[in-house]
Write a structure and sequence with these properties.
The structure is a single chain. The protein is of the alpha/beta class and 647 residues long. It has a domain of 119 residues. The chain has 20 helices and 16 strands. A 14-stranded mixed β-sheet has the order 1-2-3-4-5-6-7-8-9-10-11-12-13-16. Strands 14-15 form a two-stranded antiparallel sheet. Strand 8, helix 10 and strand 9 form a beta-alpha-beta unit. The radius of gyration is 30 Å and the shape is globular. InterPro entries: LRR_dom_sf (IPR032675), RanGap (IPR027038). It comes from Sphaceloma murrayae.
Length: 647
């Protein structure tokens, strides 16, 4: 649509121009309102979709029109009276005029925001497309990946000095609540969840019992003062110390605290702390005495295969341990295989273990591990609900896991993102888990960490569509399926169309299943599923931005979205957007992840997403790591010397 001239800048209007201005502006305003009404008639639930169907934008010169409380209120009133004639002295015209402007301005803003978001999505898909296509389907023979697992390093940090931590430690020591700040403490609410919190320069305490020092880098020197402060504290139940590089000195200090107060802490989040197998033994010696501990997170600690015996002891002895996070801990294929072999031997003659959730992402899981895990899953005593295997070089070896998946009846969540999968083996996997009695979440997508951790993308194409549709329709418990960025085409097809007198495209009211392929066929299947809540798939193949094709895609996707929204409403009594913000995460993760939510980690991730900062991944100077190791060696040296003297 050609743009109409409203008028010169309002400040340039001369008295003799006012009449002309009013005439031109009324014509313009009515034309824009007509577009709005037509768009609403075409798409009552999505005004922007209606505008796109008309192939028009609301003219941005609407933003220049005078407002009721602006500098040119007299012009606003004059326009209002012409647009909405009413008895003299009535406020009705100006009120309706303002409502018109608000609707038009909102349409301009929302259209612009959607264009921006879609342009960003196109760029994102283009980036993923380049990376995935450059890799191709994983060639396991000529492109081998180490089965030792990626190195377990914390994020690059600098050690904190005690002075910056002391105010928070003092608050903990005095056993004060989040409503009793000392100097330097600021009360706030956790974003979205609105849990009351108290934040110091370094350290956050939440009303639900979380202590959050993630990325505040207590280090090996200040861990003792922290644990001393907690000896008199009765509020903290969840200990979040991610990326604090405490090393062996920290493990010893924490172990000593647990032995003294075994029932005080439920959740231990110790990701990225330079804890090795020797340090872990000190922690396990303490954890097995605790009936309180339920969740232990050890990702990015270099445990290595030497830690297997202690991990087995922890899993089989800690009476209430339900989550163990071993992501990126250098266990390797041999270590994971040994751990699950001894677990499989243990459980037949013992009561069910409390363990429910096992994280093994980026551990080097390979052929040996998959055989052992499969055996464990096959046991009637297996109680595993969540198994995370993403970012491992599984490839064709995934078939070794299938016997366990076919026999198992407890598994609810399975992630296999970026494991080098192809159509042939995923088809076998889908057949194995079709109609599984409990599986509700399956991730076959891609991970953002794939290249950083030297793993391989999944390569799933249109050849897999029939298998996926059969899996979905034959799995009534399924609620979550992610294909992420995939080579499956959208499946948009050309259909015979008619045109209305307004030359708008009219598609057939019913598009037969036989006419659909690709993602369109999957969306059609989802539109009939009574439990599905979330489906994610973006084709890396570009869709020609043709109006007819956009409408076909929308006509197919809309019922699927509507079905999932209805399922959410039935199950959660939430709108779909509310569900995405609050409950979707618990389809993929157990609810215990709420206990490790950190405002520090979330702030850093949010800033990185907005381009306001970046997450440092690589150590340039490793002096901090060397210092942590040195302090740890001194601690163990003194410990061994003390033992020798005692004996």
């Amino acid at each position: 649509m050609g743009k109409m001239t409203v008028a010169p800048a309002l400040t340039d209007i001369l008295p003799t121009d006012v009449a002309d201005y009013l005439c031109v502006t009324i014509v313009f305003l009515k034309s824009q309102l007509r577009l709005l009404y037509k768009a609403h008639a075409l798409s009552p639930g999505d005004l922007i979709a209606g505008l796109r169907e008309l192939d028009v934008y609301i003219d941005k010169q609407v933003l220049l029109l005078p407002r009721r409380r602006g500098l040119h209120a007299d012009l606003a009133n004059a326009l209002a009276e012409r647009l909405h004639p009413s008895p003299r002295g009535s406020k009705g015209p100006i009120i309706r005029y303002e409502e018109d402007l608000i609707r038009l301005r909102r349409a301009i803003s929302e259209h612009s925001q959607r264009d921006t978001a879609e342009a960003a999505a196109v760029r994102d898909i283009s980036n993923w497309s380049r990376r995935i296509l450059e890799q191709g389907p994983w060639d396991e023979t000529n492109d081998p990946i180490s089965l030792a697992g990626p190195p377990a390093l914390p994020m690059p940090v600098e050690l904190s000095d005690l002075q910056t931590l002391t105010p928070f430690f003092e608050h903990l020591k005095q056993d004060l609540t989040v409503w009793d700040p000392l100097d330097g403490g600021h009360q706030a609410a956790e974003p979205y969840y609105k849990i009351h919190l108290l934040e110091y320069q370094k350290g956050v305490l939440y009303a639900d019992g979380r202590l959050d020092l993630c990325k505040k880098v207590v280090g090996p020197y200040n861990i003792e003062p922290l644990m001393d402060a907690l000896r008199t504290n009765n509020l903290v139940r969840h200990f979040l110390l991610g990326n604090n590089v405490i090393g062996a000195a920290g493990a010893r200090a924490i172990g000593k605290f647990i032995l003294e107060r075994p029932e005080s802490i439920e959740t231990w989040y110790l990701a990225g702390n330079c804890v090795d197998s020797c340090s872990l033994r000190c922690l396990v010696d303490a954890w097995v005495t605790s009936g309180a501990v339920t969740n232990i997170w050890l990702k990015r600690n270099p445990l290595g295969s030497a830690a297997v015996d202690d991990l087995f002891r922890l899993i089989t002895t800690a009476p209430n341990l339900r989550t163990i996070d071993l992501d990126q801990t250098e266990l390797g294929d041999a270590g994971v295989a040994r751990l699950f072999s001894v677990l499989a031997e243990h459980i037949p003659g013992h009561p069910k273990l409390p363990l429910r959730h096992v994280y093994l992402n980026a551990c080097g899981v390979g052929p040996k591990s998959l055989v052992a895990i499969s055996t464990y899953l096959s046991s009637t005593n297996c109680s595993i609900e969540s198994l995370y295997l993403s970012l491992n070089p599984l490839g064709s070896h995934i078939v070794s896991l299938l016997p366990g998946l076919q026999t198992n009846s407890s598994l609810q969540r399975l992630t296999l993102a970026s494991t080098g999968q192809t159509d042939e083996y995923v088809a076998l996997l889908l057949a194995a888990v079709t109609n599984h009695p409990s599986l509700r979440s399956l991730d076959l997508g891609q991970s953002y960490q794939t290249q950083d951790l030297s793993q391989r993308y999944n390569w799933l194409t249109g050849s897999l569509v029939d298998d996926l549709c059969n899996f979905i329709s034959s799995s009534p418990k399924l609620q979550y399926l992610s294909l992420s960025y995939t080579l499956i085409p959208t499946g948009v097809i050309s259909l015979p169309v008619a045109r209305s007198p307004l030359r708008l495209i009219r598609l057939p009211s019913i598009i037969a299943d036989s006419e659909l392929s690709g993602l369109c066929a999957i969306h059609r299947t989802i539109s009939r599923h009574t439990q599905m809540l979330y489906f994610s798939a973006k084709s890396i193949w570009p869709v020609i931005p043709d109006l007819q094709q956009r409408r076909v895609l929308s006509q197919i996707e809309s019922p699927a979205r509507g079905r999932m929204a209805a399922n959410v409403q039935n199950g959660y009594q939430l709108t779909y957007n509310e569900f995405l913000a609050a409950e979707k995460r618990f389809l993929v993760s157990p609810r215990d992840v709420r206990f490790i939510d950190s405002v520090y980690r979330n702030r850093d991730a949010g800033m990185a997403r907005r381009g306001e900062g970046r997450l440092e991944k690589y150590w340039g100077d490793e002096r901090v790591l060397e210092e942590v190791k040195r302090v740890g060696a001194d601690v163990w040296g003194r410990r061994e010397k003390s033992r020798g003297t005692t004996s």
